[in-house]
Design brief:
Elements: E1 29-31, E2 34-36, E3 40-46, H1 53-65, E4 70-72, H2 90-103, E5 107-110, H3 117-121, E6 126-129, H4 137-145, E7 150-153, H5 160-172, E8 178-182, H6 200-207, E9 212-214, H7 216-220, H8 226-235, E10 240-244, H9 262-278, E11 282-283, H10 290-293
Parallel strand pairs: 3-4, 3-10, 3-11, 4-5, 5-6, 6-7, 7-8, 8-9, 9-10
Antiparallel strand pairs: 1-2
Helix pairs in contact: 1-2, 4-5, 8-9
The chain binds phosphoenolpyruvate and manganese (II) ion.
Amino acid sequence: MPTAPGSSVRSTPTLRLTPVEARPQGTTFVVRGVEIGGPGIVLMAGPCAVESESQLMATARAVQSAGAHVLRGGAFKPRTSPYSFQGLKEEGLRLLAAARDATGMPIVTEVLDARQVDLVASYTDILQIGSRNMQNFGLLEEAGRTGLPVLLKRGMSATIEEYLNAAEYVMAAGGTRLILCERGIRTFEPSTRNTLDLNAVPMLQHRTHLPVIVDPSHGTGHAWMVPQLAAAAIAAGADGILVEVHCDPEHARSDGEHSLTPEAFGELARRVAAVAAAVGRRMAAVVTEPEAVAGAPR
Ligand code: PEP
Ligand code: MN
């Protein structure tokens, strides 16, 4: 049916909460003493999966002394095969919280399913939504509803427009402390696990007021490439880096091929600090006092 003159035609929904105009001053927030989105570069590091108390504690201590600000670790793992290690689940969350209490570092961990949001939120400081779930709209809304900081990874096949709309879902539900994370997209190139789209960094910063970080671990799939791409991400303007670190990558239960040893992570931290200085940034202040953050607001 032709549209009558003057009647409204279906309008394209617009982005409302993510555009830079919605918050020209930029989004900056503090999670247990760590400032995210401020002038300081934030390093988030830890194992792909929490495997045991000793593995997590050794990794947490090692990355903290090398300069990490936030401890990462998967308790619920999104695995391609249902027969692969799925994570320690609630026990993994408990170990992460214990590592947080011992080190003072805030923690970030993935929530896979809307039914687990309240459980994961009761342990973590930052809720991670993984690449495979970027358009799981019910999960985005549930995560936003908690009001906790959310780290939303870019879908491996998502355009920037789709990514921004996913971010709108989280923010519209109440998740205004949102971190965007470029983690590589699928292309025709098989020599790397993904193609790290560093174009996304200036593009997301041009279009949004949100902190933008980069995950060069999943972005490359090769440990030896990770420090160089971390440095490149900071040169491109990223506000932080998310990397996987394992004390014994050869025996990691997931993603050993791109996990850094603690020594390699230390080298990455030095390289990132040098590039940060070269582009007029600095490293964020590291939290070292567990007492200072126990019971601090998330
Ligand atoms: C992860 O960070 O543990 C992870 C599974 O990453 P991605 O969602 O980017 O694949
Ligand atoms: Mn991983």
